[in-house]
Amino acid sequence: MKAPKHLKKDGRTLFKQVSLEYNIDDPAGKALLTVACECLDRMKAAQEAITEHGEVVRDRYGQVKINPACALEKDARNGFLAAVRALNLDLEPLRDAPGRPPGR
After folding, report:
1. FRET pair for 100, CA 20 to 30 Å: which of 28, 60, 69, 89?
2. Three-state secondary-structure class, residue 32
3. For residue 4, which of 43, 32, 46 has the smallest C-alpha distance?
4. Section 51-62 average pLDDT
């Protein structure tokens, strides 16, 4: 299945991997997965801006304030997590045996 064209590299990669692994082919699932991928792209862009400008910046009056990209990153992360929760994916890893591995 092809990822929506407006998604960036990370979003496209996630879309392809998740849609194949979980066989998401219904319209609602595709829409939720697209939202999750858009949020991932937005979160990555915000992280790049934070890396470039720092977590705090100075406003036009010289006062230190939180970089607005920090709020964008937080909101995008929350949107991503909400979309993944709404997809109701089973994220539990497969195990060969029950319980914890034996200690050393």
Report:
1. 89
2. helix
3. 32
4. 95
Dihedral sign from CA coordinates of 41, 47, 48, 50: positive
Residue 54's region, left for phi above 0, alpha for psi from -120 to 50, else beta, is left
Structure tokens at 25: 């082919």
* Measured distance CA(45)–CA(10) in Å, rounded: 11
pLDDT digits (tens, 9 = 90+) for 4-56: 999 999 999 999 999 999 999 999 999 999 999 999 999 999 999 999 999 99
Residue for token pair 């705090």: 56
Residues 6+ apart with CB under 8 A from 10: 37, 40, 41, 44
Report how far residue 66's alpha carbon sits from residue 21's, in angstroms, rounded to the nearest whole number: 39
> What would the pLDDT profile of 74-83 be if each residue is shown by its tens digit?
999 999 999 9
Overall pTM > 0.90: no
